[in-house]
Amino acid sequence: MRKKVESKVIALFVADLHLSLTPLPYRSNEPDWFAAMQRPIDELCRLQAKHECPIFCAGDIFDKWSAPAEIINWAMTYLPYMHCIPGQHDLPEHDLGQIERSAYWTLVKAGVINHLGSKSTSTCFDKYGIMVHSYPYGVKVSPRHKLKSEWIHVALIHQYNWIASAAYCNEVPPEQHVDFGRKEFEGYDLVVSGDNHIPFEFAGTPHFVNCGGFMIRKSNDGWMPKIWMLYSDGRVESHKIVCTILDKYLNTEDAKKMEKQPNFDLTSLIDGLGKLGTDLINVQQAFLRTFRGEPSRRMKMLLKAMEE
Question: So what's the pLDDT on residue 275?
Answer without folding.
Answer: 52
